[in-house]
TrEMBL record, chain A:
Subunit structure: Tetramer of 2 alpha and 2 beta subunits.
Compartment(s) of residence: Plastid, Chloroplast
Annotated organism of origin: Hibiscus syriacus (Rose of Sharon)
KW Transmembrane (keyword) present: yes
Molecular function terms from GO: metal ion binding; pyruvate dehydrogenase (acetyl-transferring) activity
Protein's name in the database: pyruvate dehydrogenase (acetyl-transferring)
Enzymatic reactions: N(6)-[(R)-lipoyl]-L-lysyl-[protein] + pyruvate + H(+) = N(6)-[(R)-S(8)-acetyldihydrolipoyl]-L-lysyl-[protein] + CO2
TrEMBL record, chain B:
Top-rank taxon: Eukaryota
Cofactor(s) in the UniProt record: thiamine diphosphate
Protein name according to UniProt: Pyruvate dehydrogenase E1 component subunit alpha
Keyword Iron-sulfur carried by entry: no
Complex formation: Tetramer of 2 alpha and 2 beta subunits.
Catalyses which reaction(s): N(6)-[(R)-lipoyl]-L-lysyl-[protein] + pyruvate + H(+) = N(6)-[(R)-S(8)-acetyldihydrolipoyl]-L-lysyl-[protein] + CO2
Record domain Dehydrogenase E1 component: where: 89-390
Transmembrane domains' residue ranges: none
Length: 453, 428
């Protein structure tokens, strides 16, 4: 009798165990599926459906056989998973990326999945802790690390020393390095930029801060004539490893003169490089790369991006000055952007994904020269280009980029390149007018729809 | 000649009324043995200075120096070696510039060429006191500054001919003379543009001493510019910064009274440029720029002051260019009498006279120097003639110090790796 009981017990126990395991198994995968779902598709589940013909490659980190059983239902998602396997943060850069999604992170990402792709992609979570900071702190960290590393690096600008910088990028540096290394200059942009150039020629590595990029108009003589040209006219004898940086772009009702987009003015100067940062990760990386570069570099920051928060790696890294950043891979249309407009584009991308489009978003980062490799590969894949920028329409970065793409990749285009830029108006003070001066996400959505017809 | 305050009367163009070589007017805010402790404007010249040119004494910038010179005319300002060095340098400058004019009219060099004839005393007087590591920043009238600083005549002439053996590989030209080896920081075409660069070089010197702790770094920078530049914002901005941070720089104004066709008096509200120094807290000195020995005495003090870390000095040298603004300038606006007056004060003739009268050297030795310089200049022309022109491959080489700055091409490689790039035919 006990044997029979025991046999029954074992049987029931086995069943129980199997069911238990099955439930656990399914739960695990269900969770994983849900994670993928929310992570890639945004809040609405239906967004995944449009992904028809993607390759059904399995996820690298999931147990393959159990996932296959769900393939038929969720096959569209696997095409997302292909992209998940590929790194879509920084292409060919020195940055370290580690996507290791965990449950908690997935929950956190639900509400703003698409917009913060770069955030999650560029950050590292469990494998390297990293540290979280704001964009201006990232710039400060980059600057401080370079100043520690090389005693010839010095800062010059208005209110950079005792005041700590009008956007706090140089906060604390004067106390640490002294008044000569973090030099408070009088209000004489042309002359102190020239002074930076003279110092660079004679062995130092100055970082010149324009309190607002608009003030650099006063330094245009020195930037164009000396910064860009001296290496050439001296037959290569003198190098000018200077970095000129500062905030620009349209802020919150700052008025016309403080809201200028001057990237276009400087792009014709031979001999200089221009980069624009947009996230704490690339801000620090570009700052360090610019300081280490032997060429004169102009680093454009944006007034409204200084308080962006992101987790960046602890270790030393730089971002290549000539490379563009792949923000969100896609299939249908290439959207090229930089600086603040990246966030408008990502916001529009959310809407676009919901409507069934798959935009590829590239932050070009290097405004001069253009990274035609990354851009070209994207054009060859999607055949449609939309440029979204904050620069002026006439003669802006977008105009140059349109010309460069047409020249090099005309055969790959299915439609004319569309370029959304700021209106050619001095930025009005009134909030409503200022809003329509720059490109808004709704315009981007309309443009993509038009382009993809 | 009595000095009259500029605001009191407007004098016609053809009288060099403002600063005769008799007057030296000094203002100083800080008491120092060099500049005297009072800041007074002397309104009439002392009668004793009319002979200064003959005796070679400096129209002094300080009471002490004045009296010392005055006491004994046998107390010479230079030794024989120094005298010959100065003479040779000035003759080199003159002969070189004359040869430039010849070559220009023969079609060997083109563009804007600005000659320095007549102003040699300023260049020689200042630059011959410098060490190799001291820096010089000039304007477009920079051939003689380059020669005085030590750039070989061959290199300068090749550069003017646009040959690849020039000091800037033929890429700079007449107005952009650079030499890393001799610390000549340019050569700038726009006026005023070099002054901030000079301020930066002086800043580096101070930085090296105080931050990098290279304790013996006392490099001085000289910034040369003209009277027209003294109305430019960059001039004033740099006077302010240099005085504020006590940078080791000397601002040398070569006031030749004319900015192309614009008389200094017609363009400047207060034509006394040296007065602008004390307004910023640095001494302002006026000196006769046609007399190399006077210039040298002032330069010695100004450079020593900078080396000691006491800060900048503004030196206004009254001088004159015998030729037009450039070789394209017909020079019809200036009064022939004015030109004749200054021609009589030719700095080379004056030094020659001084050397011979004080038995520092014989006529024969000076003639030997003349001959030697002629040969140097001829050799420079020959060398430049025979030098090759820059090949096409040189076009893109020096645009960036790091040629990765040309970016990444559509094929994924850096553009500078493209073989067409080194041939100079790549499209960037």
């Amino acid at each position: 009798m006990s044997l029979k009981f025991f046999a029954h017990f074992l049987f029931i126990f086995q069943v129980y165990i199997s069911v238990f395991l099955l439930i656990i198994h399914l739960q695990f995968h269900f969770f994983e599926i849900a994670f993928l779902f929310y992570f890639f598709a945004g809040a609405k589940p239906m967004a995944a459906i449009f992904q028809g013909v993607g390759a059904a490659a399995t996820l690298s980190s999931s147990p393959s056989n159990s996932f296959d059983s769900n393939n038929s239902v969720f096959s569209p998602l696997t095409s997302f998973s292909v992209r998940r396997g590929a790194s879509f943060a920084v292409v060919r850069s020195d940055g370290i990326l580690n996507l290791n999604p965990k449950g908690r992170r997935a929950q956190q990402l639900i509400s703003n999945a698409v917009a913060t792709k770069a955030d999650s992609a560029a950050s590292s979570s469990s494998s390297k802790p990293g540290h979280e900071l704001l964009l201006f702190e990232a710039l400060q960290e980059g600057l401080e690390e370079e100043m520690d590393r090389d005693p010839r690096v010095c800062v010059m600008g208005e209110d950079v020393g005792h005041y700590g910088g009008s956007y706090k990028v140089t906060k604390g540096l004067a106390e640490k390095f002294g008044d000569l290394r973090v030099l408070d200059t009088p209000i004489a942009e042309n002359s102190f930029t020239g002074m930076g150039i003279g110092a660079a020629m004679t062995g130092l590595r100055p970082v010149v801060e324009g309190m607002n990029m608009g003030f650099l108009l006063l330094a245009f003589n020195q930037i164009s004539n000396n910064c860009g040209m001296l290496h050439y006219t001296s037959g290569g004898q003198f190098t000018i490893p200077i970095v000129i940086r500062g905030p620009g772009g349209v802020g919150r009702q700052l008025g016309a003169e403080h809201s200028q987009r001057l990237e276009s003015y400087f792009q014709s100067i031979p001999g200089i490089q221009m980069v624009a940062c947009s996230t704490p990760y690339n801000a620090k990386g570009l700052m360090k790369a610019a300081i280490r570069s032997e060429n004169p570099v102009i680093l454009f920051e944006h007034v409204l991006l200084y308080n962006l928060k992101e987790r960046i790696p602890d270790e030393d890294y730089i971002c290549n000055l000539e490379e563009a950043e792949m923000v969100r891979p896609g299939e249908h249309v290439t959207i090229l952007t930089y600086s603040r407009m990246r966030y408008h584009v990502m916001q529009a991308a959310k809407t676009l994904v919901n409507k069934g489009y798959d935009p590829e978003v590239i932050d070009i980062r290097s405004l001069k020269p253009f990274d035609l490799y990354t851009i070209g590969n994207s054009v060859k894949k999607t055949h449609r280009v939309l440029i979204v920028e904050e620069c002026m329409r006439t003669g802006g970065i977008g105009a140059s980029l349109t010309a460069a793409i047409t020249e090099n990749f005309n055969d790959y285009l299915d439609a004319p390149i569309m370029c959304l830029s700021s209106q050619d108006v001095p930025t009005p003070y009134a909030g409503t007018l200022e809003e329509v001066t720059v490109v808004q996400p709704a315009q981007i959505v309309t443009a993509v729809e038009q382009l993809c017809q | 000649m009595a000095f009259s305050a500029p605001t009191a009367n407007f004098t016609p163009l053809n009288t060099p009324f403002l600063r005769s070589h008799d007057n030296t007017l000094v203002s100083s805010l800080s008491p120092s043995p060099f500049f005297g402790s009072t800041a007074k404007l002397r309104l009439s010249s002392s009668p004793n200075f009319n002979l200064h040119r003959r005796s070679g004494s400096v129209v002094a910038v300080s009471e002490a120096v004045k009296e010392k010179k005055f006491k004994s005319t046998r107390n010479l300002l230079i030794t024989k070696e120094e005298g010959l060095e100065l003479y040779e340098d000035m003759v080199l400058g003159r002969a070189f510039e004359d040869m430039c004019a010849q070559m220009y009219y023969r079609g060997k060099m083109f563009g804007f060429v600005h000659l320095y004839n007549g102003q040699e005393a300023v260049s020689t007087g200042f630059i011959k006191l410098l060490k190799l590591q001291d820096s010089v920043v000039s304007t477009y009238r920079d051939h003689v500054h380059a020669l005085s600083k030590g750039v070989p005549a061959r290199a300068v002439m090749s550069e003017l001919f646009g040959k690849t053996t020039g000091c800037c590989r033929g890429q700079g030209g007449s107005m952009h003379m650079f030499s890393r080896e001799h610390n000549l920081l340019g050569g700038f075409a726009f006026i005023g543009e070099g002054i901030p660069v000079a301020t930066g070089a002086a800043f580096t010197s101070k930085y090296k001493r105080e931050v990098l702790k290279e304790a013996d770094c006392d490099h001085v920078t000289l910034a040369f510019f003209g009277d027209g530049t003294c109305n430019n914002g960059q001039f004033f901005e740099c006077l302010n910064m240099a005085a504020l941070w006590k940078l080791p720089i000397v601002f040398v104004v070569e006031n030749n009274l004319w900015a192309i066709g614009m008389s200094h008096l017609r363009s400047t509200s207060d034509p006394q440029i040296y007065k602008k120094g004390p307004a910023f807290g640095m001494p302002g000195v006026h000196v006769d720029g046609m007399d190399v020995l006077k210039v040298r005495e002032v330069a010695k003090d100004a450079i020593a002051r900078a080396r000691r870390g006491e800060g900048p000095t503004l030196v206004e040298c009254e001088t004159y260019r015998f030729r037009g603004h450039s070789l394209a300038d017909p020079d019809e606006l200036r009064d022939p009498d004015e030109k004749a007056r200054y021609a009589m004060r030719d700095p080379i003739a004056a030094l020659k006279k001084y050397i011979i009268e004080n038995n520092l050297a014989s006529e024969a030795e000076l003639k030997a120097i003349d001959k030697k310089i002629d040969e140097v200049v001829e050799d420079a022309v020959e060398f430049a003639d025979e030098s090759p022109v820059p090949p096409r491959s040189q076009l893109l080489e020096n645009v960036f110090a790091d040629p990765k700055g040309f970016g990444i091409g559509p094929d994924g490689r850096y553009r500078c790796e493209d073989p067409k790039f080194t041939q100079g035919t790549a499209h960037v």
